[in-house]
Amino acid sequence: MHNGFVTANDEKMSKSIGNFFTIREVTKLYHPLALRHFLMGTHYRSPVNYSITQIEISSEAIFYIYQTLESCGGAISQFQEEIKTSRKKYSTTDDAQECIKNLRSHFEEKMCDDLHTPTILNAALQVALKLMNRILDMLKKRLQKPQKLSNIESLIGLEKEVRDVLDVLGLLSSSTYTAVLTQLKEKALKRAGLTEENILQRIEERALARKESDFELADQIRSDLTPKGIALLDFGNDTIWRPCVPVKPAKALDQQIL
């Protein structure tokens, strides 16, 4: 639907200067949902400036969305039976009710305003995702049953509303949340020129360095991966990895797409 001009790194796309590329070439390195998110980040009648940095940001945004949805689904599944067997029906929290209402009205308002998708992606949707993550953090604490189940009901309502928005925007995959996250990680590894075994080996080396109090080496291992779009996150003694926006996208990466 987009009908504005497309530039690459602020230059007119042209085969003669070698900055011409196809969607097929882009999706070899980036998830199609990341490309769609990137395109929706600009109004359909405005020029689109393609850059590695911007599509990396969109890729990270999609990962954040699906990571939140996966965590939400896991929490709901964990307490689903308790909700079903509870004699009392619990309602969503006031914050969640307000958030759901605002997301719905904001979405309808901006879609009616000449399909203003950039505002949808960056405003009420982000508020809803942040609230979902805040509730997920609360559920890790010891809560009284009424508060716990009310939070679960809130997650159910928020997940449904977020899914509805993503569905209309074409950002809701038919694959599971976990499958999308796996696909995003596979693309990130391909861009970085690494395998998961490489990452796990570096995590083991870093764990050993931390155990031996060699924090300089531990920090260096993390710093070496960040420019390649790989972030290491510590949770107690455990470390996981996830894609991130590279500090400086590799020049070779530009050459693969531009």
From TrEMBL:
Q: What class of enzyme is it?
A: ligase
Name the Gene Ontology molecular function terms of this record: ATP binding; cysteine-tRNA ligase activity; metal ion binding
Q: What EC number(s) does its UniProt record assign?
A: 6.1.1.16
* Alphabetized SUPFAM superfamilies for the sequence: Anticodon-binding domain of a subclass of class I aminoacyl-tRNA synthetases, Nucleotidylyl transferase
Domain named tRNA synthetases class I catalytic: residues = 1-57
Domain of life (superkingdom): Eukaryota
Listed under GO cellular component are: cytoplasm
Keywords in alphabetical order, please: ATP-binding, Ligase, Metal-binding, Nucleotide-binding, Zinc
GO term, biological process aspect, one: cysteinyl-tRNA aminoacylation
Q: Which cofactor does it need?
A: Zn(2+)
The protein's name? Cysteine--tRNA ligase
